[in-house]
Specification:
Number of strands: 12
Distance between the termini: 35 Å
Shape: globular
Radius of gyration: 18 Å
Strand content: 35-45%
Structural class: mainly beta
Number of helices: 0
């Protein structure tokens, strides 16, 4: 579970991502998600209505994440950044992809990996896709009997425990939904977690994503 995500609302008895598998029974315990992978994600902010696409390198073993925003369409005044999160050092680097300007910002939130916490509640098991072209997944949440609504729901593949979607609500004003795709095991280039030389003279404040 990673604290960047939103509450996932499904219709009664049917998930929003696929049809439930008839006779699905509760899993004994969550699967173990991969510790290192590379791939892409799409993050949707439900408050602003903005979607952000990025290439991602995830290293759960060393508690670090690199996010490279992708240019999918022309958005006036938008700046694109590379983010390097180093949780063991409690610091995040924000690098402007065009100018290479760099900000160095303290990380105040604790490391929260992309996985299924052991105390999660099993919600459902179902098929995404159709005959001959599908994948079986499990859905877990942090729902507890004393609380009416979930604050986190994660969908992970049944076979290898890859993240498919995580939805998370932090508070009444921060809600996000993230979809994962094209994941590959391992880190092809560990140097992506090393900030560029421009970060040696970094600024202490975060750069704005829109310049006008």
């Amino acid at each position: 579970m990673h604290r960047v995500l939103l509450v996932f609302v499904a219709a009664a008895g049917v998930s929003a991502l696929g049809l439930p598998r008839l006779g699905a029974s509760p899993a004994d315990e969550p699967c173990d998600a991969p510790l290192q992978w590379e791939g892409k994600w799409v993050v949707y902010d439900h408050n602003t209505g903005r979607t952000s696409r990025a290439a991602v390198s995830y290293d759960g073993q060393n508690q670090r994440v690199r996010v490279l925003q992708q240019h999918k369409k022309h958005t006036p005044c938008q700046r694109f950044f590379e983010y390097i999160y180093l949780y063991q050092s409690k610091v995040m680097f924000q690098i402007d992809q065009k100018t290479k300007e760099c900000s160095k910002i303290a990380l105040t939130e604790a490391w929260d990996p992309f996985d299924i916490p052991t105390n999660s509640t099993f919600e459902d098991q179902y098929i995404i896709g159709g005959p001959g072209d599908n994948v079986e997944v499990q859905e877990w949440s942090d729902r507890k009997p004393a609380r009416q609504h979930e604050t986190w729901v994660g969908v992970y593949t049944l076979k290898d425990c890859y993240p498919v979607q995580e939805t998370y609500t932090k508070n009444s004003t921060v809600t996000t939904s993230t979809r994962f795709f094209s994941l590959q095991l391992g880190i092809s280039d560990p140097k992506v977690f090393t900030p560029p030389l421009t970060c040696q003279s970094s600024r202490p404040e975060r750069m704005v994503e829109f310049s006008c």
